[in-house]
Specification:
Oligomer: single chain
Strand order of the largest sheet: 1-2-4-3
CATH class of the largest domain: Alpha Beta
CATH superfamily of the largest domain: Homing endonucleases
Shape: elongated
Helix content: 40-55%
CATH architecture of the largest domain: Roll
Largest sheet: 4 strands, antiparallel
Radius of gyration: 22 Å
Structural class: alpha+beta
Strand content: 15-25%
Number of strands: 10
Distance between the termini: 41 Å
Number of helices: 12
């Protein structure tokens, strides 16, 4: 992966799942801030990617349940490297660099409290209506797709891909039917986050709208989510972003190879002419969720084995 593409993906990863936190310590000389940057990851391929860029940029990190950059100078090195590509974390990052570059390392209690207030204000919050889409304004759970402003954003595919790579969940919608098989099944993509600024909602919605992808945005008390159910839109999205993904790339290839052939390009609806085709379709969806830690209620119930028994299929 070339450097520009790696920067954009790393920025999208940091924006979609990363957190910049400040531990504090009261020393005899005054109060001290210790930054720590955390990046949760979905698979070892992302750790390998981070290992490569750490050698290139020149910073150390440790791997626990998350990737952690814990030294002041290393946090600064990583942030300076991705800075131009950031959106969601830009405010807190700018403040960190300002404080980090200040020669003053110890702060009085008054200065310390002022810094804490600024950090709290700039840090991404849990979803609670602080997006441009205010939860209290909704009469339903559907979020209006008309945005109040259109700031300049970086629409690079690697950045957007990192959001989907780290937040995307495949779902399978199953319902009984009076067709010859007795069931209808349709794929769905969900991207959700509980840490959000208005820029995040704008960014994802504007990118989808600019690429004419149909979606539904929903706000709940604990998260903001985007759902994509039009199957041709799902195919386009995976073909467009798949090459830039790391964690979900194998899952995306599986989806395109095992589920894609059953999606009719003219009707954007899954078509299966036999019980066996339907089972292969469901198995493809099941296989495409292997990287996900939670396969969801519908996958736990509607497994390939479930339909194999229901439809009396031998193979």
């Amino acid at each position: 992966m070339n450097e520009s593409r790696a920067q954009k993906y790393a920025a999208g990863w940091f924006d979609s799942r990363g957190r910049l936190k400040f531990n504090t310590e009261n020393k005899p000389s005054g109060w001290v801030f210790h930054p720590k940057l955390s990046l949760p990851y979905r698979c070892d391929k992302q750790v390998d990617f981070f290992e490569d860029i750490s050698k290139h940029v020149g910073f150390d990190f440790r791997q626990r349940k998350t990737i952690e950059i814990y030294k002041d100078e290393d946090v600064a090195s990583f942030i300076n490297w991705v800075y131009d590509e950031l959106v969601r974390n830009k405010g807190i990052v700018e403040y960190f660099l300002e404080v980090y570059l200040d020669d003053q390392k110890y702060y009085t209690e008054t200065e310390f409290e002022s810094h804490l207030a600024t950090i709290e204000e700039l840090s991404p919050k849990n979803w609670s209506g602080d997006s441009i889409h205010s939860y209290e304004d909704f009469e339903t759970t559907d979020v209006p797709t008309v945005l109040s402003h259109t700031p300049e954003y970086n629409y690079s595919p690697p950045y957007i891909a990192a959001w989907f790579d780290n937040r995307m969940v495949f779902s399978l919608q199953v319902s009984e039917s009076n067709n010859s098989i007795g069931y209808i099944a349709n794929p769905r993509i969900d991207v959700s986050t509980k840490y959000i600024y208005y820029t995040t909602a704008d960014l994802l919605e504007l990118w989808l709208a600019d690429n004419e992808v149909n979606y539904t945005a929903q706000a709940q008390k604990t998260k903001f989510s985007i759902e994509i159910t039009e199957e041709n839109d799902i195919l386009w999205l995976l073909n467009e972003l798949g090459p830039y993904c790391i964690a979900r790339q194998d899952d995306i290839i599986t989806f395109l190879e095992e589920v894609g052939p059953y999606i009719d390009p003219h009707t954007s609806v899954s078509q299966y002419d036999s019980d066996t085709d339907f089972l292969r379709f469901v198995r493809g969806m099941y296989n495409a969720k292997k990287t996900e830690s939670d396969r969801g209620n519908e996958i736990r119930k509607y497994t390939p084995e479930y339909f194999k028994n229901k439809l009396n299929i031998d193979n």
